[in-house]
Amino acid sequence: MKMSTYILSLLLLCSASAAATGGGDELYMPREIRRAYERGTRSMSGAPGDRYWQNGADYDLRVRVNPGTRLCSGEASITYRNNSPDTLRSLVLTLHQNMNRRGAARLSALGDRAVTEGMRIGALRVDGTERGFLPDAGEARIDGANCVVTMPAPLPPGGETEITVTWDFTIPVNTGEGGGNPRMGTYENGALFLAYWYPKVAVYDDVRGWDTHSYNGEHEFYNDYGDYRVRIDVPEGYGVWASGMLANAEEVLRAPVLDRYRMALRSDTVVRIVNEAEALARSAFVAEDGRTIWVYEGSQLPDFAFGMARGYRWDGLGARVGTRRVFVDAAYDPLAASFQTAAEEGGVAVRMMSAARPGVPFPYPGITVFNGHYGMEFPMIVNDGEFPNRILNVYVHAHEIAHSYFPFMVGTDETRYAWMDEGMAYFLPVDVQKRLSDYDHMIRAARTYERFAGTERDYPMMLPSTASAGDDLQVIAYLKPALAFAVLREMLGEEGFDSALRTFITRWEGKHPLPWDFFHTFNAVVGENLNWFWKPWFFEQGVPDLAIEGVERDGAMSTVIVRRVGNMPVPVHMQITLQGGEKKTIVRTAETWKDGGSEMRFRIDHDVPITAVRIGASWIPDARPADNSWKP
Predict the structure, then answer these.
(1) C-alpha–C-alpha distance, residues 125 and 130, integer Å
(2) Which residues pair with 93 in a beta bridge?
């Protein structure tokens, strides 16, 4: 027989502490964060404040790479703009290559051939005045991965300064015992990937002034925006793929390759720009006197990286995004079988993320998937290795491409708040990954997080990311925030969540939001104070944990009691099995716990006995899933 009446009523019993944890409570702010709001650079609506400002720099770079000696040498002309209200008496340049120096403080293990002398600075001038490194000069000093430079004259608000610098370093080797640099270096097949390869002006912001965090190999980056023009000088036969768009294709691509490149820019399907025969023959590129100079240009980029290789295949297409096209290409070793579909997969990711989640047009005119090592994002290029199965390969490509939104389109501080970019880059492409590999990575996130939930290593996400490393950082930066976003999206509905996220992206495109700007934007757009959700998920210690307390039976009436054991609000997905095999499902979003309740009672009228009750879903984390089922 069928149940004539399924649910008669749903009662929510609130705990005595409900008022103390309600939505009206203010989110905790460290004092340096609060000062920014008090000064008006940020607003409690989540939008930039009336007094928001941001500095920036434009880069004209020349670099020469000699793979045989592993020497990278360059010169830069940098125009730095002081848009702050402060007079600057010093500048900070980041020298991230110093993470590789022998004896440097770092959290990444390096093999012997990955340890170098770091970045060697030659001539350094500010507005034409040389800055010396002699101990008694006091004009410039190296402090870990930073170079602090005294200005020859104070830089007033609204002023500009010109910095010229020459440098070189030995490229670390990413093969052999002990491991290599986690994001760049030379690889076994002779390819190279060059990241954080030039002196870059650090961020000076409205919260802390100069960002002097010294790069340690584990925690990622915080960058200002600028325009780039980069000349990359490499030996004959090497192709170069980089941030920005190729500005001298006619000079470096031989006629048939140039024709196919132009075709790919406007093609809906993949074009083999450099085929395997040309790759093996190394006949695709023009050289003069044994070398080729590649020129790339990019506008309003937060960084610049490039990969180079001999014998690589090159595929590309022009993915349609609204009224324009995004050039999506892949450069890869012909032996890397999984990369033969990388350009196509990249095109799917770009189109789907532009149209659906986050539903914001892809922010750049191009994106390259370079066959290097592991997985790391840079503006307009990602450095990805090859993995043993399609699920992982698709995951890495889609995840790294998703970073184009966070932290590149929206300039979050990866160093301190990794969840703002890594959590989003885990969450945004989930539907892309399902389509391309038929696998839901939210299930992996839930099961992995469950193993950490409630342990000493389960930190609140609002602790600075620099306070954790390794697996702990993976959980609080990738998995836990992605799960929080999924719970929130179900609760607000796709339209409500997506509208708030798009508003946040639009408000903070090309700017530096804090987590509080994210929280306040959502509160404002959905028209509800969600602090009751933000607090337990992001600020507090605790776990997601629901349990079936019991089932009270009274004839044809049963009451299923669900208790919230943990403090983190999660949805209730309940499946009830009746005698004979019929199954019924009840779904209540996390909003059920908005008022601080600790117990829910589901009253069920049934004509046949209940044989089993289970709560939970594959994507919903639960610290103790053993108490999620009941049988009579």
Answers:
(1) 4
(2) 147, 201
Residue 571 in contact with residue 590, Cβ under 8 Å? yes
CB-side exposure of 200: number of CA atoms within 13 Å? 29
Residues in the chain: 632
Q: 431-486: per-residue pLDDT in tens?
A: 999 999 999 999 999 999 999 999 999 999 999 999 888 889 999 999 999 999 99
Predicted confidence (pLDDT) per residue in 268-306, tens digit: 999 999 998 998 888 999 999 999 999 999 999 999 999
Strands 120-126 and 129-130 come out as antiparallel
Report the alpha-carbon distance of residue 503 to residue 296 in Å, rounded. Answer: 32
Residue 377: name the closest of 347, 422, 343 by CA. Answer: 422
Q: How far apart are CA 515 and CA 465, in angstroms?
A: 13
Sheet strands (E) in 100-158: 120-126, 129-130, 140-143, 146-155
Amino acid residing at 334: P
Q: Which two tokens stand for residue 492?
A: 């607000």
Beta strands in 196-312 (DSSP E): 200-201, 204-205, 209-210, 226-235, 238-242, 245-246, 271-274, 291-301, 306-310
8 A C-beta contact, residue 293 and residue 250? no
546 DSSP β-pair partners: 564
SS3 344: helix
Tokens of 359: 């539903």
pTM over 0.70: yes
Half-sphere exposure of 227 (CA within 13 A, CB side): 4
192-194 and 546-554: which strand pairing? unpaired
Q: List CB contacts of 2: < 8 A, sequence separation 6 or more.
A: 582, 607
- Percent of the chain scoring above 70 in pLDDT: 95
Instruction: Report DSSP letters for 182-226, one per residue.
Output: SS-EE-TTS-EEE-S-S-EEPPEETTTEE--PPP-SSS------E
For 116, phi and psi rounded to 5 degrees? -130, -170
- List, in order, residues 6 or more apart from 146 with CB less than 8 Å away: 92, 93, 94, 95, 202, 212, 214
